[in-house]
Amino acid sequence: MSTRLPPPNTMPQTDLLASLAGVCLLVFIRIPCSLWYQRYLGIDAPSFAKVGTETAREPQLTRMGKIMCILGAVGYLLNTIYVTEIIANHLGTSVFQDTRFIFGRAGMLLTAFVHLLRLASAPSSALVIGELQADALLLISIPYVMGLLNTPPTAQDFPQRLLWDSLIAPALGFVCFVGARQIV
């Protein structure tokens, strides 16, 4: 027996505001983390001018770190797609009319794709490592922000969501974070 959400015209207009508040919260998590990692790894413009000196050696991801980041991000993508499909089958397509659900799931997918693209396209520099670590923290925090916003389906509608979104997705994000910390 599937539980259906109310039609979209009966949903409160505050859903869009809650979605935007969630996006703002995640932006305010990511930007300070990114800036902190740049400072922690010692990234500044004058250090790039000292190419060829021992002090200019940039940290790089190890091969194991790259593998962990790739496996964590691919697992995160597959987990998000699987949970979205199960929710759509369980609750019907009316769940796709809730902006909190769309912003949350799309944010999860987009952040994991960006994480993979950073690994594939850019050489492993200190700037990229800082961005990878900030992306990994977003992968960990997005499911919890979705829970704070009471994103459908709630635990009463779909209890398995707690397992997938509160344990497995953040664990895969943590694998990405640990992989991004594997530097030489």
From TrEMBL:
Residue stretches spanning the membrane: 16-37, 67-88, 100-120, 132-150, 162-180
The entry's keywords: Membrane, Transmembrane, Transmembrane helix
Entry superkingdom: Eukaryota
Protein's recorded name: Uncharacterized protein
Organism name: Crucibulum laeve
